[in-house]
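Lab channel / #folding
Pinned by the channel admin:
"Please post every new chain as: sequence first, then the structure tokens as a reply. Keep commentary short and put observations after the output so the thread stays searchable."

First post following the new format, from NK:
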Amino acid sequence: MRKIVCLLSLIVLLSGCGKLVSAPVVTVQDLNVVSVDPAGAGMELYLKVRNTNSFDVQLQGYSYDIKIMALPLAKGGAREEVNFPANEETDVRIPIRITYSDLLEILKRKPDPDKIPYQVAAGLDLETPVGQMTVPVKKSGTYAIPKKYRPAAIFGKLADFLKF
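Reply from TO:
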């Protein structure tokens, strides 16, 4: 009987441990074009993760789904380990690759380059002392394409190049 009481006490104690872990606070800081090359565009999603726990948690991987003007733009994920120290903020960059065919679908809708609506849905897979958890991240906003990456600027450079 004593073993059963000890076992039940242990189960109750362990089931309550999940409540001792609070999900880190994740905020989307920025979404930026970082490169344009013959294969497409490279972007980075910048996150700030604040671990409010008194112990470290470990990022094991992430997934993301980005839509521009309600069109799917990029979806993916990776297994990547990042330590989030206790009671600290950590910056995380998620690299995103976009093909020209996806960009053309967006340009066909003739968006205002200063106010392109986007939605980001992501999930951070974390390892904690009491098990794994996924922290959802959602953000909607508008994006202004940097002037140097706008079609007019790119085609202008191409025209200058062809004059030689």
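NK: The mean pLDDT is 83.
TO: also worth noting, The chain has three helices and eight strands.
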